[in-house]
């Protein structure tokens, strides 16, 4: 509330309402003296919306507001002096017409200080007239404009309804809803259902998503011609009210060019905040991969395995040369090596990389003619409690997070899971022996399964560290726990989200991890800091999925507000916003070359995005239920998707991304023309026996592993 | 409302919740109205009761402007550089859960007198604070070897805090203190121990209670509970 106070003071100063500002300041001094510090944060707030004057006639004060002495109630004063009394209170304490949400951030491009006043735009009983008038106009307009102007229906409907509810005209709100909710697009039906239960102002109080929706501007992309048409119509005298509403709650991003067709529009809309403004997707993104460090591959003592073809040792050398030659040229799209601090390679990491390269040499090249074999791990007797799965990069361990708050780790290979011996036993071993690393492991308690207890709620996300020493798990209890895979005990609990955490992931280089939860933010942590290093705030609803980019400089978050945002780890800025899904996003996958992102949601579609240009480049239709698992093969040739409809589908990624001509016109206007080629790209559909697919993983040799829990219905 | 399927227990659960919620609110409202010396409960009391209840039980995540503000502040600081060669990069010990969450107290001079006597370890169950942490059994000292064998059983109750303490005497006539009802000479089945709020103390009880002076006993009692 301090922020709102400061924002109101700013506004008063700017509008030269000196007296009210003084009075407010005097009242505010009763509250806190560190208002001065906060004022430095609340510097110039770009884009303050004009606040219409409050008609003096309607002076209703809320009972719980505790309005102060009457000297403060000046009719000129727009920033209602109820502010000082509302400490610790909710928006209910405000004078009904002034709902202030002040956001004071200076240099975030997509956030502006908004002082939005909820004025009664005319007579509530006439809202239906306004809306049907607009509807009639749009339906009578030219075909080419109609599709674009129809985008107005949904946001206008919702905002008008919410305004009626907020101003407590319940019966008008109900009849308004009844009359027009059937006209909206089918993909908004879920939202409308939620809205239908919001009939009173009190219902809106705890619903952060709706509050955010009210205060943020819904973005529409309309061509200049259509916009002129609309403006001309609305500025006629009788339609002024709708024009006011449009100006207040909608942001119209105008572009010059052909109006879009309904198909093009339908592909891009669907999110809770409309589409993305074009300048939101203009920042430069370093999507290239970081250079692999050069080091000597130890030659071939270990290559005495069964396959002693002469071809083998010869194959090694050219592979090493390739790595060398690539690193000579600096990829212009790759971030500088030290852009963000990354942990240095330890010896064990180097050994791991050597193993990786060896395995890569034996990797199967996949393609439309050579599909991967799929090995499915079914969790039996999980009783619908399996909520998260992860597999290590070398496919040696699999972890399951369960609704009974346990985390269970299994060994996939015949090698059992061993933990380090107890302190008593450790003091007995010979520390100088060569195989000391083997001797410290306790053979007596080795087992295939280790159960980790510690969470107090269902475990919704798990992630192995790249060096296989640590395991992360996040749960409904609001904590993210770090477990050691050498002692199989819990090491740290990171508390920050106070609400369920839906997903977590280690960075591809270890040390950093990201978590996202119900509080609508994603946080970046490091294992040795008890507080998050970065907070990525901007989503309107829960963050349901978080993934690192392969170069660890960017984080993609998918949310229940049906957008995907790409954040820069260095400074926390949102560099991309991708809209187009019609349901909450549950899976994200970066392509191995870092250029593309694949996303899956509850609407059953997989959407493909070009990160560099910020555009949608493909749509894969086929699944009929939520897609919970997406994974690119090791060289990016095949995209595998697993869904609740008990299938795994393989798509041809090479073909989907080839001949992408993103010319200037597309990037300037954001028009996309998606080819209807889902059928061509689909390489195979594999059904499981009533087992929804929760996780997919390509081994280093391009064998596809899948995991899910058998559900008997 | 768009609900197509529901399990059979859902209706009952919702009814129960609705009933419980309504009665709580109305009871609170009655209290408020009697505090304000009104003759009957009116809408304002109910409103106040609802508001207090929502602030306690149904908290909602912070509002967007607040989040954006703290995000902006947090994102201003540059990412900290990583120290080289520092082993497992973990937090200082006080933030980790790696410390043992119990303390072993050695037997006092009663050890010599326990030779030849039957000592029956028993478990006593009492109330406690819950800070879930994994018990990591350190090396027990020689006198408490038999205790660790018994404590081995409840290791499966990982995630619960327990203290292992071996007070040197437990006179038969000692009255149970309110915080730890001790049941002497009875082995409590670990299966009885369910939820996480459990303090398990094992007492080595010599059947003939050697009487130490009351002062010492009190000191031990205090010592027993200073871990709480």
UniProtKB/TrEMBL annotation, chain A:
Record GO terms (molecular function): RNA polymerase II general transcription initiation factor activity
Protein keywords: Nucleus, Repeat, Transcription, Transcription regulation, WD repeat
Record-annotated TFIID subunit TAF5 NTD2 domain positions: 122-250
Organism: Hirundo rustica
Highest taxon above the source species: Eukaryota
Functional note: The TFIID basal transcription factor complex plays a major role in the initiation of RNA polymerase II (Pol II)-dependent transcription. TFIID recognizes and binds promoters with or without a TATA box via its subunit TBP, a TATA-box-binding protein, and promotes assembly of the pre-initiation complex (PIC). The TFIID complex consists of TBP and TBP-associated factors (TAFs), including TAF1, TAF2, TAF3, TAF4, TAF5, TAF6, TAF7, TAF8, TAF9, TAF10, TAF11, TAF12 and TAF13. The TFIID complex structure can be divided into 3 modules TFIID-A, TFIID-B, and TFIID-C.
UniProt main location, coarse: nucleus
Region (Disordered): 57-83, 297-349
Family: Belongs to the WD repeat TAF5 family.
Protein name: Transcription initiation factor TFIID subunit 5
Gene3D superfamilies noted in UniProt: TFIID subunit TAF5, NTD2 domain, YVTN repeat-like/Quinoprotein amine dehydrogenase
Pfam families: TFIID_NTD2 (PF04494), WD40 (PF00400)
Compartment(s) where it occurs, according to its Swiss-Prot or TrEMBL record: Nucleus
GO biological process, one term: transcription initiation at RNA polymerase II promoter
Subunit relationships: Homodimer. Component of the TFIID basal transcription factor complex, composed of TATA-box-binding protein TBP, and a number of TBP-associated factors (TAFs), including TAF1, TAF2, TAF3, TAF4, TAF5, TAF6, TAF7, TAF8, TAF9, TAF10, TAF11, TAF12 and TAF13. The TFIID complex structure can be divided into 3 modules TFIID-A, TFIID-B, and TFIID-C. TAF5 forms the TFIID-A module together with TAF3 and TBP, and in TFIID-B with TAF8. Component of the TFTC-HAT complex, at least composed of TAF5L, TAF6L, TADA3L, SUPT3H/SPT3, TAF2, TAF4, TAF5, GCN5L2/GCN5, TAF10 and TRRAP.
GO-annotated cellular components: transcription factor TFIID complex
Feature: compositional bias, Acidic residues: 297-308
Record gene name: Taf5
WD repeats: 379-420, 452-487, 494-525, 536-577, 578-611, 620-652
PANTHER family according to UniProt: TRANSCRIPTION INITIATION FACTOR TFIID (PTHR19879), TRANSCRIPTION INITIATION FACTOR TFIID SUBUNIT 5 (PTHR19879:SF4)
Extent of Basic and acidic residues compositional bias: 320-331
């Amino acid at each position: 509330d301090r922020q709102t106070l400061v924002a109101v003071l700013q506004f008063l100063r700017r509008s030269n309402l000196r007296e009210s500002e003084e009075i407010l300041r005097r009242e505010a001094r009763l509250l806190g003296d560190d208002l001065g510090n906060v004022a430095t944060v609340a510097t110039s707030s770009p884009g303050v919306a004009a606040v219409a004057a409050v008609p003096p006639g309607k002076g209703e004060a809320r009972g719980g507001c505790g309005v102060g002495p009457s000297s403060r109630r000046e009719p000129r004063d727009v920033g209602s002096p109820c502010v000082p009394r509302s400490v610790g209170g909710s928006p209910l304490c405000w004078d009904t017409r002034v709902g202030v949400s002040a956001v004071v951030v200076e240099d975030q491009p997509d956030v502006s200080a908004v002082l939005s006043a909820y004025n009664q735009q005319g007579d509530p009983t006439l809202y239906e007239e306004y809306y049907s008038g607009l509807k009639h106009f749009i339906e009578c307009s030219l075909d080419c404009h109609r599709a674009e102007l129809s985008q107005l229906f949904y946001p206008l409907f919702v905002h008008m309804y919410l305004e009626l509810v907020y101003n407590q005209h319940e019966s008008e709100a109900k009849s308004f809803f009844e009359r027009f909710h059937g006209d909206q697009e089918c993909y908004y039906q879920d939202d409308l259902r939620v809205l239908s239960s919001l009939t009173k102002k009190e219902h809106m109080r705890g619903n952060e998503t709706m509050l955010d929706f009210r205060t943020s501007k819904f973005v529409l992309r309309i061509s200049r011609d259509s916009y002129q048409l609309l403006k001309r119509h609305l500025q006629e005298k009788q339609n002024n009210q709708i024009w006011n509403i449009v100006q207040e709650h909608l942001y119209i991003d105008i572009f010059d060019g052909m109006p879009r067709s309904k198909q093009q529009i339908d592909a891009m809309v669907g999110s809770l905040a409309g589409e993305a403004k074009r300048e939101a997707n203009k920042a430069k993104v370093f999507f290239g991969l970081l250079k692999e460090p050069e080091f000597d591959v130890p030659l071939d003592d270990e290559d005495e395995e069964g396959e002693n073809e002469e071809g083998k040792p010869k194959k090694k050398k050219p592979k090493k040369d390739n790595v060398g030659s690539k690193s000579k040229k600096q990829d212009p799209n790759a971030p500088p090596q030290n852009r963000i601090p990354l942990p240095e390679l330890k010896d064990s990491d180097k050994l791991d990389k050597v193993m990786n390269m060896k395995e890569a040499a034996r990797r199967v090249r996949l393609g439309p003619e050579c599909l991967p074999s799929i090995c499915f791990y079914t969790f039996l007797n999980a009783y619908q409690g399996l909520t998260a799965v992860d597999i290590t990069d070398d496919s040696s361990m699999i972890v399951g997070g369960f609704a009974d708050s346990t985390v269970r780790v299994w060994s996939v290979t015949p090698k059992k899971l061993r933990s380090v011996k107890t302190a008593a036993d450790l003091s007995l071993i010979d520390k100088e022996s060569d195989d000391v690393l083997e001797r410290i492991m306790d053979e007596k308690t080795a087992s295939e399964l280790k159960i980790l207890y510690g969470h107090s709620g269902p475990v919704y996300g798990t992630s192995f560290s790249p060096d296989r020493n640590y395991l992360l798990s996040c749960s409904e209890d609001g904590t993210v726990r770090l477990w050691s895979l050498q002692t199989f005990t819990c090491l740290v609990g990171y508390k920050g989200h106070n609400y369920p955490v839906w997903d977590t992931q280690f960075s591809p280089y270890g040390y950093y991890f990201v978590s996202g939860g119900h509080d609508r933010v994603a946080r970046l942590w490091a294992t040795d800091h008890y507080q998050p290093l970065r907070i990525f705030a901007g989503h309107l609803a829960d963050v349901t999925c978080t993934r690192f980019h392969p170069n660890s400089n960017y984080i993609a978050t998918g949310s229940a507000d049906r957008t995907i945002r790409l954040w820069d780890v260095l400074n926390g800025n949102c560099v991309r916003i991708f809209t187009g899904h019609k349901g909450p996003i549950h899976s994200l996958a970066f392509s191995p070359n870092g250029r593309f992102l694949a996303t899956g949601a509850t609407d059953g579609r997989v959407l493909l995005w070009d990160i560099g240009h910020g555009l949608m480049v493909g749509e894969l239709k086929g699944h009929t239920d939520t897609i919970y698992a997406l994974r690119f093969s090791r060289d990016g040739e095949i995209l595998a998707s697993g869904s609740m409809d008990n299938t795994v589908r393989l798509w041809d990624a090479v073909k989907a991304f080839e001949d992408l001509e993103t010319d200037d016109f597309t990037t300037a206007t954001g028009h996309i023309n998606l080819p209807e080629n889902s059928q061509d790209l689909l390489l195979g559909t594999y059904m499981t026996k009533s087992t929804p697919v929760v996780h997919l993983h390509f081994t280093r040799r391009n064998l596809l592993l899948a995991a899910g829990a058998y559900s008997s219905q | 409302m768009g609900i197509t399927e529901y399990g059979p227990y859902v209706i009952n659960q919702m009814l129960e919740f609705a009933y419980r919620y309504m009665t709580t609110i109305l009871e609170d409202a009655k209290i408020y109205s009697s505090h304000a010396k009104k003759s009957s409960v009116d809408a304002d009391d109910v409103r106040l009761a609802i508001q207090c209840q929502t602030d306690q039980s149904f908290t909602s995540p912070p509002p967007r402007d607040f989040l954006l503000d703290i995000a902006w502040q947090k994102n201003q600081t540059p990412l900290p550089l990583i120290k080289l060669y520092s082993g497992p990069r973990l937090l200082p010990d006080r933030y980790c859960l790696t410390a043992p969450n119990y303390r072993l107290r050695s037997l006092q001079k009663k050890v010599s007198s326990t030779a030849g006597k039957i000592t029956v370890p028993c478990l006593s169950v009492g109330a406690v604070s819950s800070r879930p942490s994994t018990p990591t059994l350190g090396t027990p000292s020689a006198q408490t070897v038999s205790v660790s064998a018994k404590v081995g059983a409840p290791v499966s109750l990982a995630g619960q805090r327990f203290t292992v303490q071996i007070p040197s005497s437990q006179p038969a006539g000692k009255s149970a203190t309110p915080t730890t009802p001790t049941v002497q000479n009875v082995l409590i089945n670990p299966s009885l121990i369910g939820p996480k709020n459990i303090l398990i103390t094992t007492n080595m009880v010599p059947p003939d209670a050697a009487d130490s002076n009351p002062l010492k006993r009190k000191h031990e009692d205090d010592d027993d509970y200073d871990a709480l």
